[in-house]
Amino acid sequence: MRNWVGGCLAGLGAVLAAPLHAATSSTFQVSAQIVAGCLVVGGVTSYGTLDYGTQSALATGALSTSLGGSTVTFQCTPGVAVSMSLDGGQNSASGTRYLKRSGGTQLLAYQLYRDAAYTQALVIGQSVAVSYSDPTAIKLPVYGRATLTGLVPAGTYTDVVQVTVAW
Fold first, then answer.
1. Structural domains in the chain (count)
2. Potential cystine with 113: which of 34, 69, 107, 143 (Cβ 3.0-4.6 Å)?
3. What is the pLDDT of residue 9?
4. What is the chain's percent helix, strand, coil content, to nearest 5?
5. CB 142 within 8 A of CB 72
6. CATH at residue 66
7. pTM of the predicted protein model
């Protein structure tokens, strides 16, 4: 029995000493899926300011301004369709946006547009396309117009409009 065990162990040693044929090279697949999207640059606490400036309470006529101040920009994958919609602000009534006098109830109507010619109104809640030529510096096209009547009490008039941007 001893010879038999010794012979088996010797045979096993011969099998283990024989070279094994293992693969020394192979392949594997590498992939990535890149999805289109946008990045907000400059923070999202405020998309900017529409400032009509300081006017006399007796002034009459149209005031015009555009979104400025600390305006954020968007960077998007080229070709991404970007849209925006604006709510009625804090003081809207019957489809009209109003600036409200601080500490008072007086209102001053204003309109928002998406073009500098003031021909394309930004209707409350309506989504509109945002055109851009540089996908790394997209700014929201928002222009404002208010008409002074000379009958508005002096004071600071404000409103806050929420804008939603989608892509």
1. 1
2. 143
3. 47
4. 10, 30, 60
5. no
6. 2.60.40.1090
7. 0.78
Overall size of the chain counted in residues: 167
Are the CB atoms for 100 and 157 separated by under 8 Å?
yes
**How would residue 71 be classed by pLDDT, with cut points 50, 70 and 90?**
low
**For position 23, what pLDDT does the model report?**
75
Q: What pLDDT, in 10s, does the model give residues 7-62?
A: 544 454 545 555 667 778 999 999 999 899 999 887 667 788 899 999 999 999 99
Among residues 134, 132, 92, which one has the least CA distance to residue 112? 92
Separation CA 39–CA 74 (nearest Å): 6
Cα torsion 119, 122, 128, 134: sign: positive
Q: What is the DSSP string of 92-116?
A: -BTTBEEEEETTS--EEEEEEESST
User: Nearest to residue 113, comparing CAs of 145, 72, 161?
Assistant: 145
